[in-house]
Structure formats: C-alpha cells, structure tokens
Amino acid sequence: MLDLVILSLHFFICFLISLAIWYGPKDVDLRSSSTEPAEMKPDGLILIGKEDDIKRSQRVTAKVNGREVVVFYHEGKFHALDSRCYHEGGPLRLGEIEDINGQACIVCPWHKYKITLETGEGLYEAINPLEPSPTPQWQSKGVKQRIHKVTIDNGNVYFCILEELQQRNAFLLLLLLTTQPASADEIRCKCLPSVRRITS
What we know:
By secondary structure, the chain is α+β, with helices and mostly antiparallel strands. It has helices spanning 2-23, 51-57, 162-179; strands spanning 39-40, 46-50, 59-64, 67-74, 77-82, 96-100, 103-107, 114-116, 121-126, 137-144, 147-153, 156-160. The longest helix is centred in the N-terminal third of the chain and has 22 residues, at 2-23. Residues 25-35 and 184-200 have low confidence and may be disordered.
C-alpha cells in the first residue's frame, strides 16, 4: 500500500513539473534578439538584422505572421528554420549545434532531436541487425523541419518563408498563363527556377 502511495505521489509531482514547464516563462535566450514582428518588404523578403550583428550573436529570432523563425550563423553560412521543433515544439533557438557526419545539426534542448541546418532533415542513429558487426549509422527520419531561404543584401540579412514564396510564384505563373496569350514555346517562368519551359 505504501508503494502505491509513493508511486502516486511521484506521478503527481511529475505532472506538476510538466505543468510548470508548459505554462511557465517562455524561452529566455540571451544569445538572440527579441521576437518582435519583423519588417517585411514588398517582394516577400523579411529583414532579420544586420549581417555583422548576427555573425556576432550566432543566432537571432523574428516573428512573422505568428510564426517564429530563427536564423543561425554557423561556419560562414546563414541558415533559417522555424524556431519550434517539429517533434513537440521545443525551442530550437536554445539548442546547441553539433557536427554529425559532416553536417551541422541543431539539437533540440527538450528531447535531443537532431535537425540539419542545411535541409531541416531529422536524423537518428540506427543499426542494421543483419550486418555481422552492426555499427550505428546516422539515418534520415523522413521528417523535415521547415527551412527558409536567407539572402544578404548591403549588409542586411533577409529571409523568405519558402511556402509563401512558392504560393506567390504559383499565383504569378497562373496570372501569366491566363492574362498573356502566347504559344507554349514563348512562355518562360522566371519566378520558378525549376520550371524552364512549359510545353503542351
């Protein structure tokens, strides 16, 4: 009976701790800027800050249309991702960066999920039990963190939310196709680099 009381007390304390974490103060990060709304240009680029400032702080966050984005500067490159981990919303901006098989990865501070900065790919360590001496190897989980394109112009760092850019480009392509009568060979899409020529 005493074991049951101790076990119940343990679960109750764990429950209270999880409530305190969930509803407590949100992610104070001394290494990043505030998450005030970012300035958006008409072309969809969002100013995140000065290049030198971001290089010094190594990371900075911005809030755009209710979405928090973090921009990392690591080994001479800028990377932008959604600030919350795809797994359970952990604050990636507080995570440490590790090198895994030559790929820079952010490690979620909550559950240690590893996400590549370049592609947003979630990684895990797995073994093949069919191998004679199985050794762990890093594999893709098949799940990706949303990443964003980073642009540097005149010492300012901008990012673009890719899904909004793709929606805008699809709209522009549709507008082009419906408003300008042209032969299929004459239609070229400059807004989608992967589309070279539209043919019938």
